[in-house]
């Protein structure tokens, strides 16, 4: 490098070193404030839940609103989630249960929401994930509830009906499916492992590119990656996390048939969540078997100006040809309009369960 270039770079690098020092000092100052918050809560007998989803959502939205760039809001959100995760871990690392093994999209969703300082607890089934939090062995669960291509995740929906857990938040994860293998060429692939939903999401690509390969459904994409790492001639459909964890090459990237393939996850805990200013409320309801019963269930939302953003039916587990309805509405249950609608709904419904009010996902 010539001397002029070195001199020009030296000034900028000195600024970077100074700024890094300021960032380090401020990060530790923030961490001390977070510790003080924990101490104050303990003094007033409110130390049971150190994580407040509504407060985190408010912080992230405020930072996005005042962000002048050039860093995009997505990067700002990622950075500050990690800062908050590290600060929380000084008090107590949060235990997060999710459908394992490590390398699943559920792990990616858990890390996206809680940061890398959380204590990740991969489990063998969605049932086990619910039980881990219900028993107090984990603080929160992260479970898939619906995919933009394949629809609802039935097991999660069924378990929500009977659980005592509350929905505390949601995570929206863009799903990029990759073909992973130890092999170096598509022609060497004779078997493709993946979760049934991922196989369905890549159905047309597989028909075009690997029409002769056997498609084998397994419990998770991470399990598929494990098999691909062990068996010659095998490949897995999975995400970036599985590729890195099981040291697999990407033979093809983003092979999902729908370019906007997205999965929504729910965050479940043992406490209610306060209002953040932009919230959803989820509930389950059923109608009596009479004419106009479903209309009577929906009318309170319209009458009180409450917008419904999801309505889905599932067979009731205790009666043949009876159905329950899963509903998401905009607003927190403490807001006057939502409270009035839910009160009226309670008088019309044969069954009503409020699953929780929680902040809308912050991207």
Automatic annotation (TrEMBL):
User: Would the keyword Cytoplasm turn up in this protein's UniProt record?
Assistant: yes
The alphabetized UniProt keywords are:
Amino-acid biosynthesis, Aromatic amino acid biosynthesis, Cytoplasm, Isomerase, Lyase, Multifunctional enzyme, Phenylalanine biosynthesis
Query: Known SUPFAM superfamilies for this protein?
Result: ACT-like (SSF55021), Chorismate mutase II (SSF48600), Periplasmic binding protein-like II (SSF53850)
Which pathway? Amino-acid biosynthesis; L-phenylalanine biosynthesis; phenylpyruvate from prephenate: step 1/1; Metabolic intermediate biosynthesis; prephenate biosynthesis; prephenate from chorismate: step 1/1
Q: Can you give the residue ranges of the Chorismate mutase domain?
A: 3-95
Which CDD domains does this UniProt record tie to the protein?
ACT_CM-PDT, PBP2_PDT_1
Q: Where is the ACT domain?
A: 282-359
Question: What EC number(s) are associated with this protein in UniProt?
Answer: 4.2.1.51, 5.4.99.5
Q: What is its main location?
A: cytoplasm
Give a short account of what the protein does.
Catalyzes the Claisen rearrangement of chorismate to prephenate and the decarboxylation/dehydration of prephenate to phenylpyruvate.
Official protein name in the record: Bifunctional chorismate mutase/prephenate dehydratase
Q: Which gene encodes it?
A: pheA
